[in-house]
Amino acid sequence: MYEPFFDEGVRWQRYAAAAAVILMVAGLVFLYLWLNSKVIILRRDLSTLSFEIQDLEKEVLSLEYRVSKIFSPERLEEKAREFGMVPLSEDHIIRLQVDVEGDRD
Fold this sequence. Notes:
By secondary structure, the protein is mainly alpha-helical. It has one domain. The chain is 70% helix and 0% strand. The chain is rod-shaped, with a radius of gyration of 42 Å.
């Protein structure tokens, strides 16, 4: 009569152990691939944000230049003349004299 080399219980234990090992390896491969895809996505996002930061820095420099040009003394004097303002002369200045009384002990 036929006698199995391994007991039936041992055979199923080996199948279960092999299936567990295969599932763990498959899980680790999936985790590895998933993490790599996340890293690739994060690197792409970082690159995009880096280019956006560079563009914003250029825009800030451009705006700072425009502000400095608009508020330069020459430009302010030009605008003041356009509005009819003239330089102040001594005869336009009224000096007030204020007497302050009080104890200074």
